[in-house]
Specification:
mainly alpha; rod-shaped
C-alpha cells in the first residue's frame, strides 16, 4: 500500500468513528427527550429504558474502541513508512482509555439523569395527590 492509501484508510476510520459518536449523541438526546416529556411515573419504563440504553452504550463503546484501535494502528504504520508525510504530526487520535472514560462518564450521567427525572415525577405525583 502507498502512503496515500494508508492516509485514506486513516480518514475512513475517522469518518466511521464520527458516525458512531453521532449515533451516540442522537440516541442520548432522544432518550433524554423521551424521559423529560413523560408525565406519569412508571418505574417499569425507566428500568426498561435504562437496560436498553446500557446495552446500546456497551455495543457503541465497543465499536468506538475498535475503530480507535484501528486508527492508532494505521497511524503507527504511517509513521514507520520510509517516506514521511507532512500531515503525520497533525494526526492525533484519542487513546482508547480516554475514549472509554469519557463514554462511561457520559453513560453514568445519562442513567442518573433518567432516574432523577423519574424520582422527581414520583415526588411531584405524591405531592399532587395530597
Amino acid at each position: 500500500m502507498t502512503n496515500y492509501q494508508f492516509l485514506q484508510f486513516y480518514f475512513d476510520r475517522s469518518n466511521a468513528l464520527q458516525g458512531y459518536w453521532t449515533l451516540y449523541v442522537v440516541i442520548l438526546g432522544g432518550l433524554l427527550a423521551f424521559s423529560s416529556l413523560r408525565k406519569q411515573p412508571d418505574y417499569r419504563t425507566v428500568i426498561l429504558v435504562s437496560i436498553l440504553y446500557c446495552c446500546f452504550a456497551y455495543k457503541n463503546l465497543g465499536a468506538i474502541e475498535d475503530v480507535t484501535r484501528q486508527q492508532l494502528s494505521i497511524l503507527d504504520t504511517l509513521k514507520s513508512l520510509p517516506e514521511p508525510l507532512a500531515v503525520e504530526s497533525t494526526l492525533t487520535p484519542t487513546d482508547v482509555p480516554g475514549v472509554r472514560n469519557f463514554h462511561v462518564f457520559c453513560d453514568v450521567l445519562v442513567i442518573l439523569t433518567i432516574w432523577t427525572m423519574e424520582w422527581r415525577r414520583v415526588r411531584y405525583s405524591h405531592s399532587e395527590s395530597k
